[in-house]
Amino acid sequence: MLTKMSTNASAEAIRALEEALGPAVVLSGADIPERNLQDWSTLGPVRPLAVVRPSDAQGVATAMRIASRHGIAVVPQGGLTGLAGGSRPIEGAIALSLERLVGIEEIDAAAATVTVKAGTTLEAIQRAADDAGFFFALDLGARGSCAIGGNIGTNAGGNRVIRYGMTRDMVLGLEVVLPDGTLMTSLNKMIKNNAGFDLKQLFIGSEGTLGIVTRAVLRLHPKPNCVMAAVCGLGSYDKVLSFLGSTRRWLGPTLSAFEVMWPDYWQVATQRVPNIRRPVSGEHAFYVLVEGMGTHEDEKARFDALLENQMEAGIIEDAAVAQSLSDVKAFWGARDAAAEFRQVLGPHSSFDIGLPVADMDIYAGACRARLARELPGCESYFYGHIADGNMHIIACVPGAAQQPYEAIDDIVYDLVRSHGGTISAEHGIGLKKKKFLPYTRSPAELELMRSIKAALDPRGLLNPGKVV
Amino acid sequence: MLTKMSTNASAEAIRALEEALGPAVVLSGADIPERNLQDWSTLGPVRPLAVVRPSDAQGVATAMRIASRHGIAVVPQGGLTGLAGGSRPIEGAIALSLERLVGIEEIDAAAATVTVKAGTTLEAIQRAADDAGFFFALDLGARGSCAIGGNIGTNAGGNRVIRYGMTRDMVLGLEVVLPDGTLMTSLNKMIKNNAGFDLKQLFIGSEGTLGIVTRAVLRLHPKPNCVMAAVCGLGSYDKVLSFLGSTRRWLGPTLSAFEVMWPDYWQVATQRVPNIRRPVSGEHAFYVLVEGMGTHEDEKARFDALLENQMEAGIIEDAAVAQSLSDVKAFWGARDAAAEFRQVLGPHSSFDIGLPVADMDIYAGACRARLARELPGCESYFYGHIADGNMHIIACVPGAAQQPYEAIDDIVYDLVRSHGGTISAEHGIGLKKKKFLPYTRSPAELELMRSIKAALDPRGLLNPGKVV
């Protein structure tokens, strides 16, 4: 009986959506594209009630209003590159895809801003900024597929957080559709605006559970004119921290990356992943990729001097300095090789935990030992954006018929809890990490998150069951 | 009858507070210090029911819990330097002062963070950071008196936003007492933490209406090793914008200030305010103070080269370059002279509006003309952090028996509305600008602010009547 009512409600909702938005915007039944059934979270496909693809913000608001009126849940979808399941469809819910809400609306050179529609890919924004003589600083591996709306919804991090901040730091204005279908346009271009609560902060990083981003005003930066990079070998984590301190003081705000790789990671990346150059030879306790983005060529000499100084001081054991942009690219190859670990190791778990910078190596040692002890044969690889407090882990039992995913999660997150870290530095909670949120957030914090969710979405219709 | 009940409730609340916190913490009647009766908003003194001064976060939570139980409102107070009335007492409400919740708890060199109690002055934090070899970048005129809790509550801006961001950008973790007395400790030190909603954003800039900040983890930066500054004369606003673009490209992330002064302002600042040096001679349509903070002495040559280049290109008409730190200080003198305008002009209105950068001069022209036309004798002076989209205005009718404060507000804010600006770039809304909030925020935004307030503080006990 209940199912029947719900089926009727669903059919009525689809009819109402088709009527309001046109049948081409609403895809149901066999017309639902494969692409909309899942994201990159590997949680597997789910068939939504319908896929709705409006081409303007009003269409998104209309869809949300109709869904709300019929009590149908809505899952917002962008480039579907999320790793935590935030845009994975829900059975009986509408997948509201922003894939047709694309385009650059304006570049304001005086304000140094770009206004974009939420479905626009990150790469398209990077290119438009470049064409206009600016630099859009957000960058991550999925740049060609991910949508800026999703980057905002997950507060994406990426490679240059140390210099330019997270996505949150690049958003000046937002237009959002609220769970009741209200279109809230707040396309502020000003860096400073203290007129009441800064509402956009609510929607950045809340993974589409409080509102659907339809447009955004983003900050642009001046183009960097030279890139300097080196890969260094160091003998201890204390020396890594000392090198980080010196690098911060020496390079100041031009420091754009400080990536640390533990030796187990380094070995797989440079010896087992094909076509990866090994910039420094010999065995070291740590490998650091340090990068600076300068405005003038003469900053290269200073970068070289930093490395010489650290070498003479006995902090660095060995260093290779990039002589060209293709060297820089090759150096990043060892760091980006993580994306190829699946080919080499087979199925595995991957993590984006955060930890106090000083505790990273203690954590890595404890985690590696406990995984190996409790899950015989388990190998683990540690690397990450250390200066940002963000460590990535890849862990698996090579050759196992069935990977002990849950047991790996339990160990990794239990140690995160005892080290006062975070279960997600950049990918978000979505569905995959929801169970572990209390490891990182106190009961008071969780209660407040639920209050906020209830205030904005009292009927729980927007991306239900995600995050909180 | 109602008053009597309320008086009884008040007396009971004070008794309960004294019992829980000790009589020395609770000051009522004649013991209420003069200092707690008003802030810098010039709205005049108000006598609160009592002043409560706990010395730890638990005490703040206890006070809030008792107030909540007795239905008594609470106004949080820090350094009382706010300009919008956010910490002005309310009759019948408790003033909850954080003046005894002071001290630096920890400096973590690896994470580059400082953990502080909310009543600590900005200057004390700057000094502690300096002593530890770091730089705490927030800076504003009231540094010796303002408390960091108030800086966070108002999302203070100040002089270096262009390089280091607002207070929001410096806060990594917060401890907050919620309106029901819950103590929510979220002293995160990690730059990246995407584990659920980023709750701290709610409390930053909401002027003590959603929670009371008790402790904070703040970001530290490397110390800049050289400061470069120049005052330039330019012939048009287009040239100012062109100069801004070149400066951004040339100095990159070392650009720390780009302050523009219109000629009316310049004349009062350099000719009527005593002891202010006039760095450039001659008459110009605009005066720009540009500042860079570098990590190496060799950056000075680049700064000089920028100015030469802009001079040769005909963008700058004249420039004086600081040769020493005392020059830098003297150059800022002309900009900081605004604080002395009261002595020269007498009572006046002052504003911290925000505007799209490209529209600033059009706004200034329209505002000046309309003030003079509608309020005979009205003079207005324009200056500000132009690269941040933030303009300050001082306006008055010199010698008038009664300043037309309301009429000036109406004109200034009406034009802000028609130019798509903000009524507050940095000082906040408090009581003084509440009436004008709809000029800057849409009905949908205001409705959402009210929903958030109702969700966190359903009985309206925390700083009631402020902001929303």
Automatic annotation (TrEMBL), chains A, B:
Pfam families: FAD-oxidase_C, FAD_binding_4. Keywords: FAD, Flavoprotein, Oxidoreductase. Residues 44-223 form the FAD-binding PCMH-type domain. InterPro entries: FAD-bd_oxidored_4_C (IPR004113), FAD-bd_PCMH (IPR016166), FAD-bd_PCMH-like_sf (IPR036318), FAD-bd_PCMH_sub2 (IPR016169), FAD-linked_Oxase-like_C (IPR016164), FAD-oxidored/transferase_4 (IPR051264), Oxid_FAD_bind_N (IPR006094), Vanillyl_alc_oxidase_C-sub2 (IPR016171). PROSITE patterns: FAD_PCMH. Gene3D superfamilies: 3.30.465.10, 3.30.70.2190, 3.30.70.2740, Vanillyl-alcohol Oxidase, Chain A, domain 4 (1.10.45.10). Its cofactor is FAD. The keyword DNA-binding does not apply. It comes from the Bacteria. Belongs to the FAD-binding oxidoreductase/transferase type 4 family. PANTHER family: D-2-HYDROXYGLUTARATE DEHYDROGENASE, MITOCHONDRIAL (PTHR43716:SF1). This is FAD-binding oxidoreductase. The lineage of its organism: Bacteria, Pseudomonadati, Pseudomonadota, Alphaproteobacteria, Hyphomicrobiales.
